[in-house]
Design goal:
Layout (H helix, E strand, L loop, with lengths): L16 H5 L46 H13 L2 E7 L3 E7 L4 H6 L5 E8 L3 E2 L3 H11 L4 E4 L6 E2 L4 E8 H32 L3 E3 L9 H10 L13 E3 L1 H7 L2 H15 L5 E5 L2 H13 L4 E7 L3 E2 L5 E2 L1 H10 L4 E5 L7 H5 L5 E3 L2 H4 L6 E4 L2 H10 L4
Parallel strand pairs: 8-15, 9-10, 10-11, 11-14, 14-15
Antiparallel strand pairs: 1-2, 3-7, 3-16, 4-6, 5-7, 12-13
Length: 387
Amino acid sequence: MPAAAAAPPNPNVLQLAPRLRGLVSFPSSYSSSSPFSNRLRLRLPRAASMSAEARVPVAPPAHPTYDLKAVINLALSEDAGDRVLIFQYESDTLGIIFTPSGDVSCLATIPSDVKAEATFIAKEDGVVAGISLADMIFKQVDPSLKVEWFESDGNYVHKGLQFGRVYGCARNIIVAERVVLNFMQRMSGIATMTKAMADAAHPACILETRKTAPGLRLVDKWAVLIGGGKNHRIGLFDMVMIKDNHISVAGGITNAMKFVDRFLAKEKLALPVEVETRTLQEVKDLLEYAAENNTSLTRIMLDNMVVPLGNGDIDVSMLKDAVELINGRFETEASGNVTIDTVKKIGETGVTYISSGALTHSVKALDISLKIDTELALQVGRRTNRA
């Protein structure tokens, strides 16, 4: 703690923020070159860290309109708010900072020039995900923060493991803390479940669905990739997927497929096409159409052909029959009643893919913390069996 703490901002001048916002351009996070910023005192790492060059990050899925930085800014803004802080810097100099640090707790307790080191601790076993995204968040909050990792996205971590550190301005670390952890915990939960299901489903590939958190689809699907799964369609734009309601409105599965082939030919579009089938008769009708026409069909979904039994087991005989009917002419995808307990038996039927909405719509987050007092955190963790 410095001998003389900087004077806290006058709360009355915070009311000037709305008027100043239209007159002055404020960066989203102040630079280390600013006279009002904190200069980072870099320390040598105390353990061998994994450099950014050594890590091979898993890239997020491509999307034509998704702005990941805007999603991060929204998360920061909803947590800390955007406030213009006007205060006396040193003697009579008036300082102005625009920062996502509307964190009144930090402003009240932590002088602006205090530096800190915080450690990431896994509080349960699982696959860590969101490290690359965490780097982006810290950079958007404060580019001068120094982050180092001892694990990479997709690695399995054990309860109590210290797998990363961040150094720099204490206020900015704490401002970023909850947003970083919220993303990482959700992504790690998705990656952990994906890894377990992908291993059990082999040789079939595990897919997620569009049952993602609104606004976080790319993040959720990124976590699936980190966990060893593959992405289904990103949205409504990158695959033609004829589902039950389309079939009902079109007047049957043959009509629906015919309309799609005509549309793609007219618009000169080359897109993968998947059709959902619910009965063996629909599979037969679709195969008959494909045998008699030049079609764009690429994959057949076999929906709810896994039947739960009273004893907790499943009957996959209908699914096997459908796979045998298709006989490798098209990719196949099993959907419905897919859990960690059923996915192995489903994968043994010969389907190409298995999709599960549960990977993203109801996944349990992996417990991760970011602590400045690591020893006390581990002591408490051991007391509560979380370290």
